[in-house]
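Technical note accompanying the year-one report. For the benefit of new consortium partners, we illustrate the data format agreed upon in the data management plan: each record pairs a sequence with a structure-token string. No post-processing was applied to the example shown here.
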Amino acid sequence: MDTIVIGIAGGSGSGKTTLADTLVSYFGENEVSILRHDNYYKRNDDLTYEERAKLNYDHPDAFDTELLCEHIRQLKAGRPIDMPVYDYSVHNRSEKTIRIQPNPVIILEGILILAEPRLVELMDFKIFVDTDADERILRRIIRDVNDRGRSLDSVIRQYRETVKPMHDQFVEPSKRKANIIIPEGGRNEAAMQVIVELIRSRLR
């Protein structure tokens, strides 16, 4: 299968998931597949909930990159994969999986995908969503408290201890690997149309 892999990176709360979801909505389910980097966090069944809650989830080593690379290769070869599902409420991978079918376009989104050379090698087009830090932390607080069952104190503590330091060390420098940098993610209609046309030209 002639497949194009589009990577969408950016800091936590930058709008990359909104951008990815909006792009997918422009096309049919037999045209675009989407892979979420968050779903490839490593299993930590040997740790207690309290121990898992203290792990650094914003470091590249937190992800099962080998499995994700293998899944991308399988999709490019025309074979379906079973994407794992991460459960934020228990800080661990769940027993569920999502069947992803091979399609002409694969969108891979996540904070650290451009910081991992093995993933970058598999991408044909790389996008970085660049959003102001104040806006990102506000979005993260709302999302984690309302959607992921976290307390406000835990969100703030995690941001100070790991999210911001890892953003400065890994995420921000990875911007240099992007082919295009988009301010404000899915809210940037002009940039959205450019990417949509890129995908449409590939599908044609």
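Partners are asked to follow this layout when depositing records. The first helix runs from residue 16 to 25.
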